[in-house]
């Protein structure tokens, strides 16, 4: 095994990431989960979805979660966003316990979920309107974000006039418009064709580099996970637990050629081995 692709302990970030965390100072930055578990109570009985999880995501890190269907990935994301309370344990964002939905996150789902009657700029401005923030303060930011994702000139178009990939780019702007520290992405490119998906991956890495956001992304695709991530968390079947966390020791910026790097190939194979018996990932 290439020593560079050995799994690391959850609490040991890559060296370059540790530097970022150290510089931040003050309250513990990033996202920290301590003993976070979830059991859904339903009429048919309890559904244990996540075993107690302990891990940290560093400020500015690109952190990707892969795992079999139903292992609790979306549940994890909802608990970090504050949309869902954990059954046990605590989620901390910048040292503060999350007890309700908070403004530190922007969320991107599998489908763009744009409002069909609002034009692209108005859709990007939706969080500002919902939070009743000053529109004029954020309008320039929304336009700049649309430009950043290549949608300049499409501000007045309605969602149906854009391709699926363009709509998803608009939804990324919507997630970033209120300048959250963290972007939570649940299978954001699952509905796109393979070529658009690859382009969106490159685009997302560029946006993350330019905005410095912390990204937590969920995917079923192991190559996508390795291509994007600083670290990949591999989950077990439900109730989900941490099977391993891998550092991805490949330099940035990355391009599609990165996928022919032997480190990339070896890491994809190593992670795939976790799922040999399940066959439930790409
Ligand atoms: N509101 C709920 N009530 C009861 N069980 C639920 C509820 N929401 C989710 N579950 C169950 O919890 C488990 C984890 O669900 P979750 O959606 O987090 O998984 P996932 O890993 O995101 O799945 P997928 O990859 O298929 O999207 C599943 O078995 C699901 O059926």
TrEMBL record:
| Regions annotated as coiled coil | none
Q: Does the keyword Electron transport apply?
A: no
Asked if the Swiss-Prot or TrEMBL record annotates the protein with the keyword Transport, the reply is yes
InterPro entries the record matches: AAA+_ATPase, ABC_transporter-like_ATP-bd, ABC_transporter-like_CS, ABC_transporter_ATP-bind, P-loop_NTPase
Keywords from UniProt, A to Z, are: ATP-binding, Nucleotide-binding, Transport
Task: State the source organism's domain of life.
Answer: Bacteria
Q: Name one Pfam family in it.
A: ABC_tran
Which GO terms label this protein's molecular function in UniProt?
Answer: ATP binding; ATP hydrolysis activity
- According to the entry, every stretch annotated as the ABC transporter domain falls at 31-262
UniProt cross-references to Gene3D superfamilies, sorted A to Z: P-loop containing nucleotide triphosphate hydrolases (3.40.50.300)
What does the UniProt record say this protein does?
Involved in beta-(1-->2)glucan export. Transmembrane domains (TMD) form a pore in the inner membrane and the ATP-binding domain (NBD) is responsible for energy generation.
Q: Which family does it belong to?
A: Belongs to the ABC transporter superfamily.
PANTHER family to which the protein is assigned, alphabetical: ALIPHATIC SULFONATES IMPORT ATP-BINDING PROTEIN SSUB, TAURINE IMPORT ATP-BINDING PROTEIN-RELATED
What name does this protein carry? NitT/TauT family transport system ATP-binding protein
From what organism does this protein derive? Bradyrhizobium macuxiense
Taxonomic classification: Bacteria, Pseudomonadati, Pseudomonadota, Alphaproteobacteria, Hyphomicrobiales
């Amino acid at each position: 095994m290439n020593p560079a692709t050995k799994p690391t302990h959850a609490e040991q970030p890559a060296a370059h990431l540790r530097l970022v965390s150290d510089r931040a100072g003050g309250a513990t930055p990033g996202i920290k989960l301590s003993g976070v578990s979830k059991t859904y109570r339903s009429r048919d009985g309890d559904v244990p979805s996540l075993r107690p999880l302990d891990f940290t995501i560093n400020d500015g890190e690109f952190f990707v979660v892969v795992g079999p269907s139903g292992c609790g990935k979306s549940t994890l994301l909802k608990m970090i966003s504050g949309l869902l309370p954990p059954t046990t344990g605590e989620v901390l964002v910048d040292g503060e316990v999350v007890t309700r939905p908070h403004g530190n996150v922007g969320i991107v789902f599998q489908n763009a979920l744009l409002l069909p009657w609002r034009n692209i700029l108005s859709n990007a401005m939706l969080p500002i309107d919902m939070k009743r923030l000053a529109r004029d303060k954020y309008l320039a930011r929304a336009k700049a974000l649309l430009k950043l994702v290549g949608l300049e000139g499409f501000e007045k178009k309605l969602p149906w006039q854009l391709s699926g990939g363009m709509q998803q780019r608009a939804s990324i702007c919507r997630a970033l418009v209120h300048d959250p520290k963290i972007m939570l992405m649940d299978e954001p490119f699952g509905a796109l064709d393979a070529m658009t998906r690859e382009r969106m991956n490159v685009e997302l890495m560029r946006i993350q580099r330019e905005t410095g956001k912390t990204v937590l992304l969920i995917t079923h695709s192991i190559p996508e996970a390795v291509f994007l991530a600083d670290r990949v968390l591999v989950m077990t079947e439900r109730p989900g637990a941490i099977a391993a966390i891998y550092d991805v020791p490949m330099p940035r910026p990355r391009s599609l050629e990165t996928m022919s790097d032997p480190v990339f190939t070896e890491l994809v194979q190593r992670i795939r081995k976790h799922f040999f018996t399940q066959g439930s990932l790409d």
